[in-house]
Each structure stands twice: as structure tokens, then as C-alpha cells.
Write a structure and sequence with these properties.
By secondary structure, the protein is mainly alpha-helical. It has one domain: Up-down Bundle (de novo design (two linked rop proteins)), CATH 1.20.1440. Helix 1 packs antiparallel against helix 2, helix 2 packs antiparallel against helix 3 and helix 3 runs antiparallel to helix 4. The N terminus is likely disordered.
Length: 129
Amino acid sequence: MKASTANSKVQSFRDLKVWQRSMELTIATYRLTKGFPREEVFGLTSQMTRSAVSVPSNIAEGFGRMNRLEFKRFLLIARASNCELQTQLEIASLLGLGDSSLFDQPVALSHEVGKMLFALLDQLKIKSG
């Protein structure tokens, strides 16, 4: 995946750094939940992976709509899914689920993605007036 820069024009959702980082977040979440107890497969594991997948999926779908208002709407959905994932990560940690050494990466990525989504939404707000 190529990263977007200030001088390059974004031609695909894949060029968006926030999409790239949210993909990393999704993979880190899957790696973490892989170590959860089997009885959590239909509980927290399922919730967390669905929330994680929702973040880059909504960024991509919104970008694909090719409409600033629609893009903003889907970015808000991605942001909400990321907040949901942050809550689920905290619950899993408090319950002592999974390998504790695998929590740092998805937690850090989720916070980074949240800041990136906020900044992108703010930038789109400024551009659209």
C-alpha cells in the first residue's frame, strides 16, 4: 500500500493513511481475539472483530460514494465503530481475556485512527463550509 502525502492526489481509499492504519487495527484485533476463550466466539470476539472490520470498510464505502456529504457520513460511522471497539478492548482487558502483551497494539492503533478520523472530519467540515 502506498501512503498519501501532501503533494500526491488521493485516487483511491487505499491512498488514505487512516484507511491503512485502520486495516492494521483490524489485523491486530483479529490476532488478539484469536487467543480468547472459545466460549467468547459468539460474544466479545465476534463483537470486536465486527467493530474492527467496520472501520476500514466504512472509510472505503464512504470514499467510493464520491460525494463529500456521504463520505463524511461514513467517516462518522467508522468513528462510532472505532469508539465501540475501544470500549470492547477495555472490557476484554478488564476481564483478562487473551494475551495481555497483544493489547497494546490494537489499543494504540485505535486511538491513532480515532484522532485521524477526527482530523479528517474536521478538514472536510472546513472545506465544505
